Amino acid sequence: MFTPLIDRALAAPAASAAPAAFHEPRSVMLPPRLSLASCVRGHIVRRTVGLPLAPEQRANHFPASLLCAIHWFFEGEAEVLRRGDQAVRESTPRLCVIGPHRVPVVSHNPGAVDALMVALTPMAVEALTGVSMADLVDRVLPFEQVFDAEWQAMARAVFDAPDDADRIRVVEDFLEPRWLGLRDQSIPRATRYRFWAENLALRAAQSGVGSSLRQVERRIKRWTGQPPRDLRRMLRAEESFYRCVAAYQRGEVDWATAALDSGYADQAHLCREVRRITGLSPAALLAAIEREESFWIYRLDP
């Protein structure tokens, strides 16, 4: 259950087969170094080169997300087809920055791709670059439009690296000394995505002169590009998603119980939130994750 088509194609190699080569199909999220855990959510490798996929399997369904990402296409390309309920036709640059998205997104690869996406927390991006999150929300921008010459040199070095491990090493060697100098000031004691988000309210209350609720909310929106209410909704949805996936795999999904356990008012509330973030009902989403290659992003281990 929840085995992507790429993994099925590779599931039964011949006994004499050599170890998996760099250029074989791959869909995986790789964890960052511990020193970067509060900066980098993960490194997502997506490679469909050599895999016979039907056109509909070359779609990519992404949920709404609080995260930013740097995206490299080493081979192939993508076009954004839908952002929430809006149909669009936006070509994705070969090297781009993806901002936090308040709505689900559907893109399409016309052919095979070899790509790397480095997912970053918004506060880390702002602390490292000074870029305002409000300028990135719901946008995909050329990398050079957002980052300076040092970052651009790093990005070019990633293009020149020979394999996934070296590509990630280039990124992390660049980020680590810069992040360690800012980490304690920017996100004290926050070592993961969830803890980063939970720490925002405390930091906002302790920052600046005023500490009224309205001032705290304004600071959080300035740091992340989204209001605290939306952050809480996405965090709750993420935790609910992994809880429901585990229950689904055991054959024990009870949507009413799942809703209450996740802090929703009722099952209808859960369904509305899942549809808002993913574009599908919970049941339809779980079925799509199991059957459709285009929902590969949901199958990656966090």
Automatic annotation (TrEMBL):
TM ranges: none
Record SMART domains: HTH_ARAC
A Pfam family this chain is assigned to: HTH_18
Coiled coil regions in record: none
UniProt-listed PROSITE patterns: HTH_ARAC_FAMILY_2
Database matches in InterPro entries: HTH_AraC
Positions of the HTH araC/xylS-type domain: 197-288
Protein name as it appears in the record: HTH araC/xylS-type domain-containing protein
Organism: Sphaerotilus microaerophilus
